Amino acid sequence: MPNAISGFSKLSKSEKIEWLLDSYFTNKEAARMLVKQYWNSNEQLQKLHDEFIENTITNYYLPLGVAPNFKINDRLYTIPMAIEESSVVAAASKAAKFWLNRGGFKAEVISTTKIGQVHFIYKGDFNQLKTFFENVKFKLISDTADITKNMERRGGGIVDIELKNKSDDLDNYYQLHATFETLDAMGANFINSCLEQFATTFKSEAEKNLEGDLSIVMSILSNYVPNCLVKAEVSCKIEDLKSKDISKPEVFAKKFKQAVNIAEVEPYRAVTHNKGIMNGIDAVVLATGNDFRAVEAGVHAYAARNGKYSSLTHCSIDNDTFRFWIEIPLALGTVGGLTSLHPLVKFSLELLEKPAAKDLMQIVAVAGLAQNFAALKSLTTTGIQEGHMKMHLMNILNQFEATTKEKTQIVEHFKTNIVTHSAVVEAIENLRK
Ligand code: MEV
């Protein structure tokens, strides 16, 4: 076991690596080479990445793929996706192509506000607190003028601040519950800066003008954004669902809807169903430099908003029309954060023709819906493994360090055979005999 280390963050990058090698690795040279192999030869680019976080030792690559042919509100997009799971981009591309000639995807942003809270403890009379809040509310807002002036110039800013009495849930617990419009910025820094200023003003005014003891616990935005909502949908006549792998569209539509209904009522299935949606969502969120952890947390909370975890997508069959849609909260930014820093994020945003945050919300929601459509289409027809294992084949071949020639022969073989892990191993062994 290595000794604890102090001052690690102050070591140079090479010193950090040497400490790691001395402390944890037997084959130091191999580990050193591995770490350095992933450094970018462009020193400036490497330095940029080094400075994104603390204690960077190297880069961790994920593939950046693209899914073309996404028709969204009659406009064509090629969607960038950063993800390691082999079948995701292929599934998105297939779903995009499927809907391309069936009207494409329709998307709309329903709302765009975000929430931040100052959590505080107050031991005193609630009516006095209420009066104090009403008197101080204007000052809370005016004291943030330096922080909000640019955002206000663009049409955003603080929408409202409410006092919330939470003392039934937790003794003496209250909140300043603030609503923000952050336009094209995800807004975390803006919101948190405003909240910290609210807290400072609120505390100092309370010391002068409020009886009872008031102490601020914390000030932070919420990643639960049910009022930053986007909807995306596809629809067509049931008979138009007919395609190469859907020979009986009525049967397909009915089974597809049953699969969605199951995810609406059964949490075990809903989690996996929504995980498939997040395959598409996270990949685009990551490619565009947004915070996928924030999106994940907010989306899953929304999926449980009625007290039971449920599907994020829904399906209807009305007379002869099939409709499939998603409604999700997405707090995204197309300015600020990594958007102007990470070269591949800049590339991705340019590929999407420099979307506003509202456009990106629509694109991301569509990516989630498309992913879910592809998954349910496979699950209710061929089963998921056929497509999944075909895509996973290359990973297995790489595990066995197959040569290019071996790969070509084996991929050919599996064009007409079912891919399973053991079948691939057997094929490699046979080939190498
Ligand atoms: C795999 O990453 C995602 C799926 O399990 C989603 C689903 O079951 O709907 C295929």
TrEMBL record:
Gene3D superfamilies: 1.10.8.660, 3-hydroxy-3-methylglutaryl-coenzyme A Reductase, Chain A, domain 2 (3.90.770.10). Its EC number is 1.1.1.88. It catalyses: (R)-mevalonate + 2 NAD(+) + CoA = (3S)-3-hydroxy-3-methylglutaryl-CoA + 2 NADH + 2 H(+). Pfam families: HMG-CoA_red. One of its GO terms (molecular function) is hydroxymethylglutaryl-CoA reductase (NADH) activity. Pathway: Metabolic intermediate metabolism; (R)-mevalonate degradation; (S)-3-hydroxy-3-methylglutaryl-CoA from (R)-mevalonate: step 1/1. The keyword Oxidoreductase applies. It is an enzyme of class 1 (oxidoreductase). It comes from the Bacteria. Keywords: NAD, Oxidoreductase. Belongs to the HMG-CoA reductase family. This is 3-hydroxy-3-methylglutaryl coenzyme A reductase. It comes from Winogradskyella echinorum.
